[in-house]
Amino acid sequence: MPHDLAGEAFQGLGRLCVDVAENCVISAPDSVGMERIEARFHGSAFDLHRHDTYAIGVTLHGVQTFRYRGATHHSLPGQIIVLHPDELHDGGAGTEDGLRYRMLYLEPSVVLDCLDTVGALLPFVRDAVVTDPAFRMRLLSALGPLDQKLDDLFVADFIAQLMQSLTRHAGLPAKPIPRTAWRAASLARDYLEENVFRIVRSEELEAITGLDRYALSRHFRAAFSTSPHRFLLMRRLQRARRMIEA
């Protein structure tokens, strides 16, 4: 396990908390249903409290120590913390080196919308500290650009992918895709091709495909091995290169 991920994963963002001895919390621009922060602390940071959201984050530096569900837990750099809504917990630095971490807070309504199953229960991850490199990289894709507002298409795909990690660690079966919705995926692809140089909202793709944004993300990935967000970025780069070469 690496001792410190801060420089590796977040180069250029150290300016957010300039003083090494400083205790601070930095909030990112809002996304609907999801809040992102960076926190840096020395000693005990938070007394026992609850969130009405999931709290899912990555420890970047130091030892993250917290009480949760009757036990004391320790997260090292690169490990993931998953806290269920409405569970008492506290937190702070476990050593004199201090603590730095990034966390996202995800509203349960967003999780249930993504699961899209009647009577679905919120995924419960029994292990509060998780070691999973793929899950970590998925989180860092949203927690890295903390000083930027996340693109709407990116958020939809990120949440769909995040749910796969949550349900897996909760021991729930993966949401099946019995048959790829090729027509819907193709309609979305064509629409993105036609609107390369403007911001495309998830609502637009939902309207033309008849799928919700999370289902569309899964079907689009099944059809084209990439997300709508990534597909649009690559088409922009492709068009830009052609314009330069012309």
How would you summarize what this structure contains?
The protein is an alpha+beta fold.
List the helices and strands and how they pair.
Blueprint: H1 6-9, E1 24-27, E2 34-41, E3 44-49, E4 54-61, E5 64-68, E6 71-75, E7 80-83, E8 89-93, E9 99-106, H2 108-115, E10 129-130, H3 133-143, H4 152-169, H5 182-194, H6 202-209, H7 213-224, H8 228-245
Antiparallel strand pairs: 1-2, 2-9, 3-8, 4-7, 4-9, 5-6, 5-8, 7-10
Helix pairs in contact: 3-4, 4-7, 5-7, 5-8
Structure description:
The chain has 246 residues and is α+β, with helices and mostly antiparallel strands. It folds into two domains: 6-169, Jelly Rolls; 182-245, Arc Repressor Mutant, subunit A, CATH 1.10.10.60. The protein is built from eight helices and ten strands. It has helices at 6-9, 108-115, 133-143, 152-169, 182-194, 202-209, 213-224, 228-245, and strands at residues 24-27, 34-41, 44-49, 54-61, 64-68, 71-75, 80-83, 89-93, 99-106, 129-130. The strands form two sheets. The protein has a six-stranded antiparallel beta sheet with strand order 1-2-9-4-7-10. Strands 3-8-5-6 form a four-stranded antiparallel beta sheet, with no helix packed on it. Strand 1 and strand 2 form a beta hairpin. Helix 5 crosses helix 7. It is globular and about 60 Å long. It starts with 5 loop residues before the first helix and ends with a helix. Mean pLDDT is 87; it is low at 8-16.
